[in-house]
Design brief:
Elements lengths: L7 H20 L6 E15 L10 E16 L3 E14 L7 E13 L3 E13 H4 L12 E14 L4 E15 L9 E13 L4 E13 L8 E14 L3 E14 L2 E15 L3 E13 L5 E14 L4 E15 L9 E14 L4 E14 L6 E13 L3 E2 L1
Antiparallel strand pairs: 1-2, 1-18, 1-19, 2-3, 3-4, 4-5, 5-6, 6-7, 7-8, 8-9, 9-10, 10-11, 11-12, 12-13, 13-14, 14-15, 15-16, 16-17, 17-18
Length: about 400
Amino acid sequence: MLRRLPPIWSTLGYLCLYAGLGVLASNTVDAAEWLVNPTLRASSEYVDNPRLLVAGGETLVGAVGEVSSVMQRVTERSQLVLSPRLAATRYQEDNLLDNDVRSLAAQYDRRWERMRWTGAASYTRDTTLTSELGLSGFVQANREHEGIAFNLSPSATLTERTNAGLRLGYSNNHYIDAKSTGLVDYDYRTASLFGNFDYSEQTRLTITARGGELHVPDAPLADKQDAAVQFGWSYQAYSLWNFAASAGPSYLKSKFGSDTGSVFQLSAQRTAEHWSVSASASRDLTPTGQGVLTRSDQLTLELNRFFTERLSAGISLSGIRNQDQLAQPNAEAPTLEYLRGELSINWQFAEHWSLAFLASGATQKYNNAPDAADSYRTSIGIVWNGQPRSL
């Protein structure tokens, strides 16, 4: 029998309880009002081969509606942020591709003189058309997906330049009506210890030791444990350039054996008055809906430009290469490559109204498939950004 997540009302109840505890905690310092910033979006989109079929797929025209909000409560020592979002996509030619996204995220930050507690909780209900892109790559059928995630991180300031802390994380993913698709329910637990040393006003040195455990209820042989240690460095140059780098060894163990490797993260960012650019490269161990841990290599490049106060544009490029680790003995490791490029243009024609244009293309390829699958998407819509209001 498949293990299911708690009912939606129960999951949302946990998030509300989490938020309520944050409100009560912040009330012990001083009173503060809620600030709410709503956003509405309606768009029409054209999409070619949404299922990323190698032989090509249908061309569809659809309608997208979205409502979201950022609710924030800030005091002198705490901050609580709630971010609900509802989105619906409908296609007249093929209603099997219709999908909804419902999510709620909560973040809480509490500071004392030498202590800090941060935490986050989230619930998402969407479909495999969005949840599996760049992970398992399974988008050929539209199945519902539920996910919850929690993390908690207490930290302490040891000296003027040194702080250390603990970070605990848990995530659970459940696929509905996913028999014979290869997708399985799984949960992933992590725990890490970290320390930071401010070498100067611009330079910081870090060390992080992390352990994780993947649990697949319906396939006990797929359970895995992983560990990694990373040594890092970051540098900020006069609020214009930001650089960060970290790397270290990793270890993975399963019922079929063990393996060693490495993990790393590199990033650079430049921010100017009218433009910004950022680039990153990373390697990490990431769980997917196929009940495996993958070695995930990622590259990203983003460029944003403000031409006027009301007209802006952005270009983003990303590449992901996921290789299953210790999936089966004496078998070639499945590998997924996913590339995506996107162009976005935004024109604010009124105080709270803007037009948004987006064009993107993606390609996906498995190492055991002869050819890659390509997909293209174009959308134009209208966006209303409400004025922040207090409650």
